[in-house]
Specification:
single chain, about 260 residues, two-stranded antiparallel ribbon
């Protein structure tokens, strides 16, 4: 059974409201015992430092993607020029340099994506642990899944978003009287949608590029890879907005200094 107003938490009053929706009046109403409120700041850990590191790394990922786009344009130009005159003026040294630059950009992308993913998951676990203090009743999965969910094939396209939704709800700032205030989840939804689209498109285009053999096929595949890099830039920017917003929400939520403990239905 869930609260008749927010449909998120177990009811604690006789009229079916949870503790936050009932407000001060609900605390005095007859019904099941209302859980005590305490201020367990000692169990909270600030995500600010990790958030700053994630934002910086995401910005570097976006720069690496821009370099890859520039290198891709150079490859396409050289191949298109060569194809136009049957490679009569094709410069092998220039082509080798362009290929090396393209490969180096790809390596930089891979290294920065790996580093960013590691720090992002550490930050994600931190905000999930804080959400457990704020409101454990709205968390769909145990804290350990904040890490494990990213490594489950196919399910990692869904599970982290479920966990993020619980974190977002628990981190939404309540009003000073204890009533609930909903924060639109647009930044989270945009980030997740862009990330999934970028991941799927990258998977398809990278395989098409590896299968390309003819010159025109390589040109076309390189163009698709550039689109994939552009999508990754969009996903990185939206991830920055999501990380900054959720981190700020947790700071505001922690400043209230009151958290429900052990609400049971």
């Amino acid at each position: 059974m869930l609260c008749s107003t927010c449909r998120l938490r177990p009811p604690v009053t006789a009229d079916g409201h949870c503790l936050l929706c009932a407000g001060p009046a609900g605390a005095a109403a007859p019904g099941p015992p209302v859980p005590a409120f305490v201020a367990p700041q000692q169990y909270l850990r600030s995500p600010d430092g990790l958030a700053k590191a994630v934002v910086i790394l995401l910005a570097v990922v976006a720069v690496a993607d821009l370099l890859a786009v520039a290198a891709g344009l150079n490859i396409r130009r050289l191949l298109a020029d060569g194809l136009e005159n049957d490679f009569a003026t094709y410069d092998d040294a220039e082509a080798t340099l362009a290929d090396n630059l393209y490969g180096s950009a790809g390596v930089l992308q891979g290294v920065m994506t790996l580093a960013t993913g590691i720090v992002f998951i550490i930050w994600f676990r931190r905000v999930r642990m804080n959400a457990e203090v704020f409101d454990p009743s709205v968390q769909p999965m145990s804290p350990g899944w904040a890490v494990g969910a990213w490594f489950v094939p196919v399910a990692n396209l869904v599970l982290p978003r479920r966990i993020a939704g619980g974190i977002w709800t628990a981190s939404a700032q309540t009003n000073t009287d204890g009533s609930w205030r909903t924060v639109p989840a647009t930044p989270m939804n945009l980030w997740w949608g862009a990330w999934v689209c970028s991941l799927a498109f990258s998977w398809v285009t990278s395989r098409q590029y590896m299968r390309a053999e003819e010159t025109q096929e390589i040109i076309d595949a390189a163009g698709l890879v550039m689109v994939s890099d552009a999508l990754d830039i969009v996903a990185a920017v939206l991830a920055i907005l999501f990380v900054r917003k959720l981190t700020r929400m947790q700071g505001e939520r922690a400043a209230l200094g009151v958290y429900p403990l052990g609400v049971q239905g």
